[in-house]
Amino acid sequence: MTEAQAGDYRILHEAALRDYLAGLPDIAARLGNEPVSWSITEVGDGNLNLVFIVKGDRGGIAVKQALPYVRLVGESWPLPLSRAHYEFLALSKQAELAPGLVPAVLHHNDGLALTVMELLEPHIIMRKGLVAGTRYPRFVDDITTFMARTLFFTSDLALSTAEKKEAIAAFAGNHALCKITEDLIFTDPYRIAEQNRWTAPYLDALAADLRDDMELHVAISRLKLKFMASPEALLHGDLHTGSIMVTESETRVIDPEFAFYGPMGFDLGAVLANLLMAYFASSGHERVPGERREFEGWVLETVEQVWNEFARKFLDLWRTKAGGDAYPVSLFSGEQGAARLEIERQAYMQRLFTDTVGFTAAKTIRRIFGLAHNIDFELIEDPKQRAISEARAVRLARAMMVETGTYRTIADVTGAARKLRDWMPELSN
Ligand code: SR1
Ligand code: MG
């Protein structure tokens, strides 16, 4: 399926894509009728790539092609095409570890940086559903299975040290994508950077506070170092609600082009931060005051369940499937050993929770002051109302980052979020 054809790269717009797909017998058969009758629509609304939906009379496919630059910014910001290779590698590993929770890959061409996947229909991007106030009953079970299994089985708890180091090496070349995260999440929002933006003028003072807040600078720098230097497990690397497609009965995790071996709390924090932002944005989408309270209650319940179910599933895998070189069985024999190891597992989860709290905060602040924002806030039309929602999220995020240790349980996080629901910030102007 992988075809390494370095030097073959060209951007495939509609006609060239049609010809290319017509030359792939399995894909052409899946689409049906004559290639000339296939409909091809570019639907990419992400920050980096081209995404086409192609439909024939028998079926449809999704085609993703990496551009040699950041789509959001343009050709002035080049970006390696190799990210398509890492995305393909990650999708393959995730399909093996979490079957049914990622889109099926039908074809991949490294030289063209192009991947053909099953068309997810009628799935929508979860973020859009959350903005509309839709609840997703399958989400907690699916996303916690995805995270528990992909993180556990790629960690030292499951792999031998040789397997683990080979796996780290396989993703080590994806450093340009890591650098985007290191800059856009862990650095730029806390300094003057050309590409930063926020809801001005209302958040001007808050943006300036962030740039002067040394306790916050220490906290974000510790998180940055953890992100750079803790290859605990294979991360999705960009697990926000724009990377998740849903229906009421299905969940698919897409777009793992930021995949690399990093700290587990980064993926967990991405999911929790994006749910919390959906919560804080929700009041900005009301037409009648209070009409989304039930939805907001569901979002906070979901935040709690995501952590609790993840922890339960991860611990269960550790107790039943540990085969890695960490925590050697020979050091924990007998009843006493088993009891001591169980205490250590709880301590491990507490440390992971603390990392998660910090990364949740970092993933929130970047969406309010950095380059890449999210529609949860952006679609709040009244800028003052948007700034109020954003300031509430930032207040929680700052506390979670600087006073991380005071958040011992996920209920501490949701309790703090609930208290901020109607808090009125002081805005600039
Ligand atoms: C320049 S890329 C901006 C953001 O888009 C991706 O989805 C990642 O979140 C990245 O930080
Ligand atoms: Mg993406």
Largest sheet, strands/sense/barrel: 6 strands, mixed
Strand order in space, largest sheet = 1-7-8-4-3-2
Shape: globular
Poorly predicted regions are none
What is the highest CATH level, the class of the largest domain? Alpha Beta
CATH superfamily of the largest domain: Aminoglycoside phosphotransferase (APH), C-terminal lobe
The CATH level-2 architecture of the largest domain is identified as Alpha-Beta Complex
User: What hetero molecules are bound to the protein chains?
Assistant: 5-S-methyl-5-thio-alpha-D-ribofuranose, magnesium ion
| Helicity, as a percent range | 40-55%
Q: Which class of secondary structure composition applies to the elements?
A: alpha+beta
Number of helices: 15
Note the run of SSEs as H and E: EHHEEEEEHEEEHHHHHHEEEEHHHHHH
Mean pLDDT over all positions:
97
Summarize the structure.
This protein has 429 residues and is of the alpha+beta class. The protein is built from 15 helices and 13 strands.
Structural notes for this entry:
- With 429 residues, the protein is α+β, with helices and mostly antiparallel strands.
- It has two domains: 11-118, Phosphorylase Kinase, domain 1, CATH 3.30.200.20; 124-420, Alpha-Beta Complex (Aminoglycoside 3'-phosphotransferase, Chain: A, domain 2).
- It has 15 helices and 13 strands.
- It has helices at residues 14-22, 25-31, 83-97, 126-131, 139-153, 161-172, 175-184, 204-212, 214-229, 264-282, 293-321, 334-369, 375-378, 383-402, 410-420; strands spanning 2-3, 39-42, 49-55, 60-66, 69-70, 74-78, 105-109, 114-118, 124-125, 233-235, 244-246, 251-253, 260-262.
- The strands form four sheets. It has a six-stranded mixed β-sheet with strand order 1-7-8-4-3-2, with helices on both faces.
- Strand 7 and strand 8 (114-118) form a beta hairpin.
- The termini are far apart.
- The model has no long low-confidence stretch (mean pLDDT 97).
- The protein binds 5-S-methyl-5-thio-alpha-D-ribofuranose and magnesium ion.
